[in-house]
Amino acid sequence: MVGAAGVLLAVLFIPWLVWWKYVDKKRLLEITLLGALVLIIASYLDAVISEFGLWSYNYEIIPVWPRLISADFTVLPVTYMFIYQYFQEWKKFLLAMVIASTLFAFVGEPFLQWLNIYNLHEWKHVYSFPIYIFLGLFVKWFVQMMLARSIR
Known about the structure:
The chain is mainly alpha-helical. The chain has five helices and two strands. It has helices at 2-22, 28-51, 69-86, 90-114, 125-151; strands at residues 55-57, 118-120. A two-stranded antiparallel ribbon has the order 1-2. The longest helix has 27 residues, at 125-151.
């Protein structure tokens, strides 16, 4: 299905162009660290959960990387970086993460299923919801902890 592959390729590159245009260049290192952590953790979780057979993918953009790199390498990191950039206060950040997590788990994942890109086996979308939130809270805490310690 060329359509799904095209969507995956577009989603892999276009958000980075938008991010580069709007990222706060004064906080580039801090924001990029957060995005890199999201990318690493999301990729690892995707690999582990896929390996356990809880979900699978029908398309591979890069054959040696059978995960949904468009989500792991682009959608999640770029979204989390924008949330981190624009919602610095913890309460607002948490609210933004709940909204984003709702969209990822209950709109994005079903849409990927509808496109026949993503198959659930022993997984439910509701399981993803708290993981998306926790991931955001953890990386924000970690980056802020690193910043606080590097200032000393």
